[in-house]
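Subject: design request, 132 residues
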């Protein structure tokens, strides 16, 4: 009887040792979407997930991370699922107007500039200050 109780407590202890604190998404995160502390929560789970390294919450607060792929809600976030976003600030000087935006210049002509924003939308800014 003592052996049975000892074996049962040993099994329970070994199962509890596999429990880890994992960062989990609280909402769906789009491809190249920003991963923030507001859309990540910490949970205790067993070691059934196959991540070698998980995303560190302290580093998440220090840097801007983006998703390498679509991440479903309630999915653990591995370190390989995210990357640190580079700052792509673009400055435009149209004489008396100066614009600074984050994005990537796609095309520039005499009349307008096409920009791809961080969310993937393409925006056209006219140099003569008219609407889009």
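Subject: RE: design request

Done. Sequence follows.
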């Amino acid at each position: 009887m003592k052996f049975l109780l000892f074996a049962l407590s040993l099994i329970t202890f070994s199962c509890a040792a596999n429990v880890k604190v994992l960062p989990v998404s609280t909402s769906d995160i789009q491809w190249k979407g920003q991963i923030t502390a507001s859309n990540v929560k910490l949970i205790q789970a067993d070691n059934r997930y196959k991540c070698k390294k998980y995303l560190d919450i302290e580093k998440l607060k220090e840097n801007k991370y983006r998703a390498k792929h679509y991440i479903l809600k309630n999915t653990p976030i591995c370190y390989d699922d995210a990357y640190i976003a580079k700052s792509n600030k673009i400055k435009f000087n149209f004489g008396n107007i100066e614009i600074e935006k984050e994005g990537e210049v796609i095309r520039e002509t005499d009349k307008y500039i096409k920009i791809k924003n961080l969310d993937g939308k393409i925006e056209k800014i006219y140099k003569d200050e008219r609407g889009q």
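The chain is about 15% helix and 35% strand.
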